[in-house]
């Protein structure tokens, strides 16, 4: 039996949201009984030091704790690893180097989902991920132009993420709406929600001013595609 | 760092619902940042053979697969185990005997939540759990009288559970409403939702005809109480 390894807890609700997407996508692919669903091992470690703070130079590195989680998943013989936290992907190469199991890259999956013809792409992420340039580099490599937030807009993005982590989804949505309005005024054609807390706020918006790419959903799609192609929904 | 072990996947959405309750209860207890939440290890094994079918004599025993999951959690040094599936608790003693970590019993947590003064309690569960008498014995031991469904009502309960497992929440709610109406007519004062799929349907009901005890929520409450009492929300 092949297990999908999830390194989660960053944050807790985003991991649950990711699992729910995996299950819904597997149902859409035809699973109607428990036994047709995908086995997973979820190492849910909310105590991992804050990724964004570390990237901004304000806190301890999460890398030892991330590698601890990656090691645990590999010791339990998972066949694939996914990490529903964009900021953690700053340390992708270090995690990949210590993992037997392949790791799907959340930002690669998200950028791959951008529609053809689009040029200006808004980057919504933690302050740390924005500062690290993770999405900007990946967008440039594929011929897209990044639209980065100004300070006031990043403040709304940060507040949205903090509110989701505190379970205040209503308030988080207001901050996200203000951020997306600003990006729309800058001529951004699509917004990448490059932090897995942001889709939880976006799901509550009746009419986002520009279309969004949901990094949680794109990671879930890539995971389910991989798993179904390998037949992991079939018990041995 | 102490880990809460969850033996899940029975079914997939019920496990996600359980995790979401754990996180919400931890937030309500004051957690506002990732690092104040509870670490978990979730062994999510939807391929475990159908518990209800086995209890009705129609399928292979899930016990070897359940013990495989319990073994995996113990090898990873979890300090507590919870299983968000009522039917699996038919094998509680066998699992407990092979587990170093204590296992909270979902039916004990649910029956303990019944309000004083109540006498007639509706039992809603899989056909297998109903047949096993798990809830009826526990209710009788505490002085409650079980109201068991007739065949037509059990058909609605089974259909509700099957629909939730297939992701058809809307249809599942109609079946649950018909079952609860029948129990109300029998004079049941409270209904125990003794299957972790049922609360997913109940959450969509605007006005259940009798109050319900939600076994997913009661297991989550017992888990969070235990974990917070042991300080597991504080990183080492």
UniProtKB/TrEMBL annotation, chains A, B:
Key words of the record:
Isomerase
- InterPro entries per the record? Asp/Glu/hydantoin_racemase, Asp/Glu_race, Asp_race
GO MF terms, alphabetically ordered: amino-acid racemase activity
Pfam families documented for this protein? Asp_Glu_race
Taxonomy, superkingdom: Bacteria
Show the NCBIfam families listed in the entry: asp_race
Q: Which family does it belong to?
A: Belongs to the aspartate/glutamate racemases family.
Q: What is this protein called?
A: Aspartate/glutamate racemase family protein
What species was this sequence derived from?
Trinickia dinghuensis
């Amino acid at each position: 039996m092949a297990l999908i390894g999830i390194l989660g807890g960053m944050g807790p609700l985003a991991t649950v949201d990711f699992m729910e997407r995996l299950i819904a996508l597997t149902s859409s692919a035809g699973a109607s009984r428990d036994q047709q669903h995908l086995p997973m091992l979820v190492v849910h470690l909310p105590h991992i030091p804050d990724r964004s703070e570390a990237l901004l130079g304000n806190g301890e590195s999460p890398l030892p704790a991330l590698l601890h989680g990656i090691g645990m998943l590999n010791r339990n013989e998972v066949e694939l690893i996914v990490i529903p936290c964009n900021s953690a992907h700053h340390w992708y190469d270090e995690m990949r180097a210590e993992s037997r199991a392949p790791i799907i890259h959340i930002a690669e999956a998200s950028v791959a989902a951008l529609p053809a013809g689009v040029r200006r792409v808004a980057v919504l992420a933690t302050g740390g991920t924005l500062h690290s340039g993770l999405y900007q580099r990946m967008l440039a490599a594929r011929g897209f132009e990044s639209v980065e937030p100004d300070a006031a807009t990043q403040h709304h993005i940060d507040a949205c993420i903090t509110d989701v982590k505190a379970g205040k989804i209503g308030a988080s949505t207001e901050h996200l709406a203000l951020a997306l309005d600003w990006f729309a005024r800058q001529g951004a054609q699509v917004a990448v929600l490059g932090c897995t807390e942001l889709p939880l706020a976006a799901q509550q918006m009746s009419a986002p001013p520009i279309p969004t790419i949901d990094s949680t959903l794109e990671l879930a799609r890539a995971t389910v595609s991989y798993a179904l192609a390998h037949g992991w929904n079939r018990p041995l």
